[in-house]
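Re: the 264-residue chain
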Amino acid sequence: MIIGSAICTGAPTSTFSVLLLGRALQGVGAAGVNISIRTILADRVSLSEYALNWTIFALVSGVGFSVGPVIGGYLNTASWRWCFAINLPIGVVAMIVVVFVLRKDLQGPQPLPQLESHDMSTAPRRFIARLLTIDYGGQMLFLWGFGLLILALTWAGGNYAWDSPAVLAPIIIGGILAIAWVVYERCMVPGSVMARALPKQKAMVPWELLSQRDIGLLFLVNFSIGVSMFAVMYFMDLYFALVENRSSSSAGISLLYFLPGLGG
């Protein structure tokens, strides 16, 4: 994420593709950071302690969601590059804290039964062996399926009409790939044909989680909250900036009325 932020900070205004590259790297890094945070909060603690850890983190996130747009708005008034540059010192400090302060409290890499017969004598071989456990088929179906659905819903009604090929094609193809992803994950159940063909790979989302009623309901709730919350946040930014023609600092202050409730 730091590398992506650095690229965005120095991206020339004449080459928009450089900014897109930086944003792509930021996205990959942010996804990893998000999972790493949850892992760190859960390592070596009980469920009740994890609940406390997550509550504190949620409160900090709520403050960040509230204050961030205001600070970002004023930074953008000075220079839009500061919106990316501010990540650099914070990211470096966070890495130092994790490595030197939290490292002793972390579990580290956990044993994988499917790799017991694999040569794990050196660090590079352990790294390659763990790469072999990734569900590459499920990852690709998930990314392309839901990516095309998001693209179609972003274009529909704005860039293109709902019944245009530019919208219908990604909706249909994305829907088929999304369904294929569910079927693919079902076929990764231990003992099935796909699991026997790819014995070292671990399903992206284990089917036993999807088949449990409580976990399935949690997935549905989180999915619905994510769709509604991020859609509102995204379009509110556009509304303040493009419809009401507000400055970035004024738009950031306007978001304060929405985001503290989210934090609460």
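The chain is about 75% helix and 0% strand.
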